[in-house]
Specification:
The protein is α/β, with parallel strands linked by helices. The protein is built from 10 helices and 12 strands. The radius of gyration is 22 Å and the shape is globular. It starts with 12 loop residues before the first helix and ends in an 8-residue tail after the last strand.
Length: 298
């Protein structure tokens, strides 16, 4: 795991003053400082009388690998916060849950290299279902920076919580906010901040800080959670129409052997079916509607 201690070049102050345009300063994300945990609950903004407020839980997992069918969660981080639906902003950070669990298998060395989590750190540890239930009381929105990764792991380990609504901060339009990348570390570093990445709770707190200083990003999260989308699939022997499907913006899923595209309204679905029907059997067209409740599920 990366260490930032003793890396600041104190001996280069004179050089920095002579050429400030050639240097950039990174500051530790305030929410990831050890003493921040003693300040909870932490208020970011006052509540305005009459506004609609709801709970959100920022969630991150560290795992033994990438395959949720065979790998296990070894660390779960959850940070519960309150947000204003009307102003689209986080109002307060309320409480934190962070714990290890013994996966009953050796942690691969490459995972230890990335996260710093060792077999001895997780030995005999187990997630506390009662505390997790308290974090999720009232069915808050769940936000993860890679929900397509975290949700399958979480839903498999905690089946009783598999019907929550999820949103993914990785999938919002960061390009519209002036970014060429989407990794959480990059998004923060480009704004002058750093933190100890690849530990569950730190990742959650760093994401909240990013949503706090870049409030348009949290507004995008809410929009994503409130918006449904449709995946349209074209099945059957599609080899002869593959070029036509490509021209219409369809992509090929090599695992499931089908073409697909994403649209956002039921009218768009109807138009896709009629368009495909002009050159192919439209009975081979299927679609599925995804909302925040079932998005990012396997």
């Amino acid at each position: 795991m990366s260490s930032y201690s003793n890396l600041f070049p104190m001996e280069r102050f004179d050089e920095i003053q002579l050429r400030p345009e050639d240097f950039r300063l990174l500051e530790r994300v305030p929410f990831t400082k050890t003493e921040f945990l003693d300040q909870l609950p932490y208020k970011l903004h006052d509540v305005i009388e009459g506004e609609r407020t709801f709970s959100v839980v920022f969630l991150d997992t560290e795992t033994t690998g990438l395959d949720f069918n065979n790998d296990k969660i070894i660390e779960l981080g959850m940070v519960r916060a309150t947000y204003s639906l009307d102003r689209r902003m986080i109002l307060s950070i309320n409480k934190i849950y962070n714990e290890f669990e013994d996966p009953k298998m050796p942690i691969p060395p490459k995972i230890t290299d990335i996260t710093g989590i060792t077999d001895s750190m997780v030995a005999a540890k187990q997630f506390d279902i009662d505390q997790i239930s308290q974090m999720l009381v009232g069915r808050p929105l769940i936000v993860a920076h890679n929900a397509a990764f975290d949700r399958p792991f979480f839903d498999k380990r905690f089946e009783m919580f598999s019907n929550l609504s999820w949103a993914c901060s990785y999938n919002i339009n960061w390009e519209a906010l002036g970014n060429s990348g989407k990794k959480l570390e990059f998004l923060l570093q480009s704004r002058g901040w750093f933190y100890e990445a690849h530990r569950a709770c730190e990742d959650c707190l760093a994401l909240i800080w990013l949503m706090h200083i870049e409030q348009d990003s949290f507004s995008m999260i809410i929009d994503q959670a409130l918006t449904s989308e449709f995946y349209v699939f074209v099945l059957g022997n599609t080899y002869e129409i593959k070029d036509k499907l490509k021209s219409l913006g369809y992509k090929f899923d090599g695992n499931k052997k089908r073409w697909y595209t994403k649209v956002y309204t039921s009218d768009d679905v109807k138009r896709q079916i009629e368009t495909i029907g002009e050159f192919y059997d439209k009975t081979q067209v299927r679609f599925v509607k995804l909302s925040a409740f079932d998005r990012f599920k396997v």
